[in-house]
Amino acid sequence: MDPLEPTFQPPVENKEERTWAMACHLAAFSAWFTGFGMIVGPLVVWLIKKDQFPLVDDQGKEALNFNISLAIYGFVAFLLSFVLIGIPILVALGIFWFIEVIIATIRANNGERFRYPLTIRFLK
Questions:
Q1: So what's the pLDDT on residue 1?
Q2: Mean pLDDT along residues 73-98
């Protein structure tokens, strides 16, 4: 059994906790306004509410890990764009990022713990 995968846990019922967990994922969209908000947004929400709500602690770390991983992948794809292969990779990463953040937001709103694919676990 993978120690990073949580065992089955029933969905969280506390609406405020679910809302803040959802905010951890949605805060990544602040990147559209700041350029670097995909990491800073989830970090701020996580730091503010991690001690108060266990779901926020879990999903905040997950959102940070995913967005840091995607930033690294994006940087590598940017470097590869000088040989043209990176351009379609950048487009695919952008679409993948958008879809996964939406899925994670919906799952967090349902009180579920979501695990992003292709994520390097920096924070455990």
A1: 43
A2: 94
Single out the residue of 71, 60, 51 nearest to residue 23, CA to CA.
Answer: 60
C-alpha closest to that of 38 among 71, 60, 74: 71
The structure tokens 């993948």 sit at 96
Q: How far apart are CA 53 and CA 32, in angstroms?
A: 27
Q: State pLDDT tens for residues 30-69.
A: 988 887 788 999 999 999 999 999 999 999 999 999 999 9
Which residue in 14, 24, 9 sits closest to 59, CA to CA? 24
- 3-state percent breakdown (helix, strand, coil) of the chain, nearest 5: 70, 0, 30
CB atoms within 10 A of CB 103: 13
